[in-house]
DNA sequence: CCTACCTCTGACATGTTGTCCAACTTACTG
DNA sequence: CAGTAAGTTGGACAACATGTCAGAGGTAGG
């Protein structure tokens, strides 16, 4: 998690070295590099699920829940550049019931509630809003990575953009 | 353009074969695979610039111009999956004055006009709006590529999302 | 003790990128 | 017509990362 999470381009050799084992030992546990990356992503998303569980308990308005969701995921996006990396995109294509899906599904549910309650505009496809949210999150992360924005500024801009996209009133 | 534009993962060998030459000949013209991709992207964006030139002449409102910009770029995104591919993202990092920048710069100018004229909300950073627009465009393209949306539906959803993000009235 | 289980060393196959060179074709030039 | 310059080709080779395989060694638990 430390090596791949921070340096998505790290070679299997480097991951093994950081773990104090050899390359072959890594392959003994994970059949391919991709499955190793998948495992790391799974662990990260497990953290996300846990954080969402503690944050989402007494769900107030959908808007407030959305902001908490953004807060949790943004923090992880900041800690693990791997999540921004293309190699991750190739993973959740086939394996649909991956951990990753859980986090996304929470957002989808949240959007459903918000639209039903009239907090969000209901004329935009929830599935699209999920994709759009992730895309904007990646874009915001990219701005930070490129040094064009600070983390806090990017988070603020992201919040405003998402709310606007959803047709929610800014609190 | 045909091979790489449609199949971003194509090997240099395949590009060479399609051109009726050998791999070495390709390397005689382009020092690396990346520079070859960059050249393809340059040609595509040259088309984009030409299309924008013919479409942008008598610029009406900024909103109308924005929709034309979206129309032109969306068409190219649809024709050349390469533009959605990660390998392209690695290009325009270093070479800032690439053709690609011209298309982006047009959007930035357009946003400036719209904000100055009060058509768009002026409280969001134009540079961010540019990044966000591209991100949403890629997301919409991804939906089409994944078979979750038709091209026309994705284009419509993209338009609405962008307008909403910009704080523009939907025409 | 001894048997699984894990790990290590070392070697090997594969595929792609990028480089080098000698030989060949083609077209232009004096 | 001869010669030259440029582009192309075939073949070979290095580098590098991913995977695979077999044999030797170590360690904990029965």
From TrEMBL, chains A, B:
<protein>
    <recommendedName>
        <fullName>HTH tetR-type domain-containing protein</fullName>
    </recommendedName>
</protein>
<dbReference type="InterPro" id="IPR036271">
    <property type="entry name" value="Tet_transcr_reg_TetR-rel_C_sf"/>
</dbReference>
<feature type="DNA-binding region" description="H-T-H motif">
    <location>
        <begin position="11"/>
        <end position="30"/>
    </location>
</feature>
<keyword id="KW-0805">Transcription regulation</keyword>
<dbReference type="InterPro" id="IPR050109">
    <property type="entry name" value="HTH-type_TetR-like_transc_reg"/>
</dbReference>
<dbReference type="Pfam" id="PF00440">
    <property type="entry name" value="TetR_N"/>
</dbReference>
<feature type="domain" description="HTH tetR-type">
    <location>
        <begin position="1"/>
        <end position="48"/>
    </location>
</feature>
<keyword id="KW-0804">Transcription</keyword>
<dbReference type="InterPro" id="IPR001647">
    <property type="entry name" value="HTH_TetR"/>
</dbReference>
<dbReference type="InterPro" id="IPR009057">
    <property type="entry name" value="Homeodomain-like_sf"/>
</dbReference>
<keyword id="KW-0238">DNA-binding</keyword>
